[in-house]
Structures are given as C-alpha cells and as structure tokens.
Amino acid sequence: FVYCFAALCPSASPFHEKLLNLEERLHISIVMALFSSLTPVFIAIICVLIGVIMKKTNGEKEKPDTKSKHPSRPWVDEDLKDGTDHPLEEEEGEEEWQGLEENVAHVPFTGERYSEAEMIERSQAFYELLNKRRSVRFLSDEPVPREVIDNVIRTAGTSPSGAHTEPWTFVVVQDPYLKHKIREIVEEEEEINYKKRMGDRWVNDLKRLRTNWIKEYLDTAPYLILIFKQVYGQLPNGKKKTHYYNEISVSIACGILLAALQNAGLYTVTSTPLNCGPQLRVLLQRPANEKLLLLLPVGYPKKDATVPALTRKPLEDIMVFM
Fold it and tell me: Which of 37, 46, 109, 241 is least enclosed by beta carbons within 10 angstroms?
C-alpha cells in the first residue's frame, strides 16, 4: 500500500518525502523480520556442517585404530604380492641381463606331430592320469628315490617365464631337523590364521574338508619342496633387475611340477604357508629377493590315507566354446 501510494503522489510534495522515509523504514523492518525468521535455519545449517566435519575428522582418526584392531588377512601376505607393479627402473641401467646376448640367436624347431587318433588317445590318457590327482594330507615316511625328485624339478624348470627370467628357486628339504623346524613355524602361524586372521566364513568352509593347523605331514613326508619366487634378479654388478610377471611365471611352474609328481606316482597337498615366509626364508638362508609362494610335502600316501569325496566341475561348466 505504501509503495503504491508513494508512486501516485507528486514527487515534490512533503507528504511524498514522509512516504519515502516510511518506505525505507519498512525495507529495514522487512529485512530484519526476514533475517530473524531465517536465523534458526542458518543456525541449523551451520550445526549440520559442523557435525559433518567432525564426523569426517573422527572417521579419519579411527581408520588406523581399526586396522590395528583387526589383523591383516592372510591373502594380503607380503610374500604373495607380485613385485612387477614396482619396476626397479632407477637401478636397471643399460647392462646386459645376466650374461645373455643382446640378440639371442634363433634355431630351427620341429615339434612332435601325432595323428588325430594318437592326439585324442594321448590327451585322454593324460587327462585320466591327472584326474586321479588328489590333495593327500596323510603321507608315509617311505623313502623316495632322489633321482625322481631331481627329474620333477627339472620338469618344472621347463616352464615359460616373463622375458625368460626363470624367476624360481625350488628348495628341497630332506633333513629331519629342518622339516620339524618348518612344521613348528607353519603350525604356529596357521593356528593364528585359523583363530584370528581367516574369519569365520573361511574356517567354516574348511571344516567339511577336516583341515586344521596341525601339519603332521611336514614331519613324515620324505621331502618338502618349497617354491620361492624371485621378485627381482641380481646383475653381476650387484644391481637389481625386474623379473616380469614373476608370480604368474612361478605359478605356471608349480602347475607343471604337480603334473610331474602325479606322473611319477607321488602325491602332495598344495600348502600356502601364510605369514610364514620371512621366518622360513631365514631358516633356509634364502636371499631377500626370494619370497615363498608354495610348500609341497612329497611322498607316497599312507596305507590308511583318506581324502574328501569331492567331484570336479564338468567340462560345460569350465569351458566356453565360441
């Protein structure tokens, strides 16, 4: 009403000036009323922002405590990490790699060639042989010829590797004292794994297989084969050299080793000695560039040995043909 009346009055009249003064006071009153009505809203918004900031700050402070309260999972064991993600470029230099020529000569190659009937027969026979492979935890102390062990290790050494770096070391332990020390180290860590690190779900999944942290086979098996991956190599001048895809390369070698053991009539159980690597590395006097990947007790099954009644997935569940 004041705005409309002021607009209609002559601008020179005294009444118009009074109306303008009234209009200014009205502006101030409206602004103050609006501000007073919005004050609770502003206060609420400020409180919410302060709460969010404090919560975020507390959350950041709690993260280290959370990590310290919950032990790290075994599957993030430092020994199980592949060093390929961290190349050693600053130390590589331009030197030749381990005495290999800069340009490796290529030689003629002729592979074995079988008839279709032979191929089918051989592939079927090899499948049937490996299909008998089982993880056996009850191994006898019956001696195994050393020459057989040498041959299966040679076979594993035929595995392909990244840039032909052959980043593997197979430590074969026959000495009873060393085998028992290995058992003590593994059982101590495995008990912690089962009780604290692995979690209820994993432990419950293993119950049906009747496994626990007691590893009697580490004493009774005539041989223990510990497979180490070399996360980097050593140049003649002492500098480090990256071993590409070291874990994948050594894993392939382990698969070939399992097939070679089965072919020789020997049995094992694949054991990942989680969180045991540093202690076993010191015990076996292995260098710092080697990380433990797998432990295989090797021998013949006990006469009363048992294995879980498991089945394998059919071909149509594991193969996609396109």
Answer: 109
